[in-house]
Every structure is written in structure tokens, then in C-alpha cells.
């Protein structure tokens, strides 16, 4: 038999932190908008294309970042300590 009298106490966290690596509805929405905005901005740098498309692409990037932050604060992002996590429709 094993003697457990000299075993050290184990201190574990109350709950395991989420390990979804940012695969949330808020993250997907923000990154999709950033990619589309970057595409628009890069098209605006081509010759013969109005340069206003560059500024429109940058505006799309800024708006998508704000939308991602709003969605995170609504509970569709990575859960923070003390806040309940909201499940998206995919159930992740």
C-alpha cells in the first residue's frame, strides 16, 4: 500500500477556463469584417480604381471591430470570469 500521509495538498481552480481559442460568434464576425475591409482597401490602391474605396475599406475594418466588441460585451465572445457564457446557435 502507498503511504499518503506525506502527500502535498493540491490546489485546483474552481473551474476549467474555456479553451475555444477565439472560436466565438463575436470573433468570427469581427475577423470576417476585417478581411473584407482589407480586401476593399487593397482594391482601392489599384490604378484606375477610385481611391475612396480605400477609405471605405478602412471604415469597414473599424466598424467590424466595434461590432465585435459589442457582441463580446453582449455575451457572444470569450466568457470572462464572473460573467455567464452565452451559447451561440451552433452550441459551441
Task: Describe this protein's structure.
The chain is mainly alpha-helical and 92 residues long. Helices cover 48% and strands 0% of the residues. The chain contains two helices and no strands. Helix 1 runs antiparallel to helix 2 (52-76). The longest helix has 25 residues, at 52-76.
Low-confidence sequence ranges: none
Approximate helicity band: 40-55%
* Shape summary: elongated
User: Main sheet, how many strands, which sense, barrel?
Assistant: none
Task: Tell me the fraction of residues in β-strands, as a range.
Answer: under 5%
Order of helices and strands: HH
Mean residue pLDDT:
83
- First-last Cα distance: 44 Å
Alpha-beta classification: mainly alpha
> What does the radius of gyration come to?
22 Å
How many H/I helices?
2
Strand segment count: 0
Concise overview:
With 92 residues, this protein is mainly alpha-helical. It has helices at residues 25-43, 52-76.
Provide tags for this entry.
mainly alpha; single chain; 0% strand; elongated; 92 residues
List the helices and strands and how they pair.
Elements: H1 25-43, H2 52-76
Helix pairs in contact: 1-2
